[in-house]
Amino acid sequence: MPMRDTILNFCGQFKYEPEIINPDKLGRFNKFIIAGMGGSNLVADLLKIRAPEIDIIAHRNYGLPTVPDLSQRLLIANSYSGNTEETIDSLNHAFKKSVPATVVATGGKLIELAKKHGLPYIQMPATGIQPRSALGFNIKAIAKLIGRNDFIEELNEIHKILHPEEYEKQGKTLAKKLKGYIPVIYSSVENSGIAYNWKIKFNETGKIPAFYNVFSELNHNEMTGFNVQKSTAGLSKNFHFIFLKDPADHPKIQKRMEITAKLYTDRELPVEILELRGKGIFHKIFSSLVLADWTSYYTAEQYGVEPEQVPIVEEFKKLIA
Questions:
Q1: What is the pLDDT of residues 78-100, one digit of tens each?
Q2: In what side-by-side order are the strands of the sheet with 239-245?
Q3: Same domain, 240 and 116
Q4: Which of 29, 85, 267, 306 is 20 to 30 Å from 68 by CA-CA measure?
Q5: Which stretches of the chain are DSSP H helices?
Q6: In whole angstroms, what is the distance from residue 278 CA to residue 286 CA?
């Protein structure tokens, strides 16, 4: 499916009703590890925005995290393709250490392992879209496995209240402003999952470098790298800053954002402030990410690059195999 159609049809994913295979083998847990890479592990951070108290470790590596309560956690091996090398390795380590495990994938080796070992699993629809574009399918599947029916009820409403076409013009305009620049996305710690998603979309869809950081940590280090001097102006001029401002952020964080934006603007660094708003937290999250989709899509168009595929990743996989 062409990327533009994928964006326009994104909200249809929230009609998806995930089904757990072997549900009787899924115990009750309140601690989780979501093992996955790239676009297949963006959901963990988004769930933390909705429920900061939820005990989820986002594991982006081989093996398993070093935590004392490993056997009390449910490992969710999460890979859109089902063939992610690191995620398969995490699942195999779970078998060796008797860590309870489940799988979310469209197919591949992970589904084969789930069937072989009789694990509970969810097989998502294989629509041919890229993992970063399958967040609707993935977040509903994860919500189902962790037993959060309240999340599922809220997510069911997204296809009714979020209309991607309404954000296209804004995304196209923002892409024009960003042409020739490297985007740097800033947010509060609480919204770091949204900022990280923006970065990923610029990298994978727009095919450009992009970076992100969070308040207030960046005020203690990164900010000093943009105190423009004659000798460093040639470096600083390449960056364009996107501030994701949330009315729900701590008042002192909001003040830090305002002052940082002023300091950057005073130094002739381009700044765009985007306010996060929505009819509930999930709507706030996904409306921002739809805007990120459009911005990165039109970024790709401006540079004449293909927005959907990630050929350097595929080349890398062949070389490492």
A1: 999 999 999 999 999 999 999 99
A2: 211-215, 182-188, 239-245, 271-275
A3: no
A4: 85
A5: 3-8, 43-50, 85-96, 108-117, 135-145, 149-156, 158-161, 168-178, 192-204, 233-236, 251-266, 281-303, 311-320
A6: 9
Q: Is 313 within the bounds of a domain?
A: no
pLDDT, tens only, 102-156: 999 999 999 999 999 999 999 999 998 999 999 999 999 999 999 999 999 999 9
Contacts (Cβ under 8 Å, ≥6 apart) of 147:
28
Candidates 97, 179, 255, 317; catalytic one: 317
Can you give the length of the chain in residues? Answer: 321
Q: What is the pTM of this model?
A: 0.95
- Compute the radius of gyration of the chain from its Cα atoms: 20
Handedness of CA 215, 32, 19, 108 (dihedral sign): positive
Which residues contact residue 5 at a Cβ distance below 8 angstroms, ignoring those fewer than 6 apart? none
Residue in 140, 168, 199, 204 annotated catalytic: 204
For the chain, the domain total comes to: 2
- Among 116, 220, 230, 318, the active-site one is 220
Whether 317 is a known active-site residue: answer yes
Same structural domain for residues 93 and 242?
Answer: no
For 213, the enclosing helix (H) or strand (E) is: strand 211-215
Residues 187 and 216 in one domain: yes
Please say if 204 is a catalytic residue. yes
